[in-house]
Design brief:
Distance between the termini: 55 Å
Order of helices and strands: HHH
Structural class: mainly alpha
Helix content: 40-55%
Length: 74
């Protein structure tokens, strides 16, 4: 019985490692990820809500496309 449990546990652990083996984007998949609907901010309502929350917390608006800046106090 113990041998069967060990085998089952080893099998489950091995399948978990194999599930992470195919991470990354293949060159032929990049065209699908470059579509506009795959962008992180493709939904207008979500962008408006995020802007409102950011304005409410930071008292600033705009500047979504620019990296860096600010006072650097984070």
């Amino acid at each position: 019985m113990l041998k069967k449990v060990r085998f089952t546990l080893a099998f489950l652990v091995a399948t978990q490692f194999v599930g992470c083996a195919n991470l990354g984007v293949k060159p032929w998949q990049r065209d699908l990820l470059a579509k506009e609907e795959m962008a992180l901010g493709s939904e207008g309502n979500d962008l408006g809500l995020d802007d409102h929350i950011y304005f409410s917390k930071e008292a600033t608006s705009g500047g979504r496309a620019f990296a860096g800046g600010g006072c650097g106090c984070n």
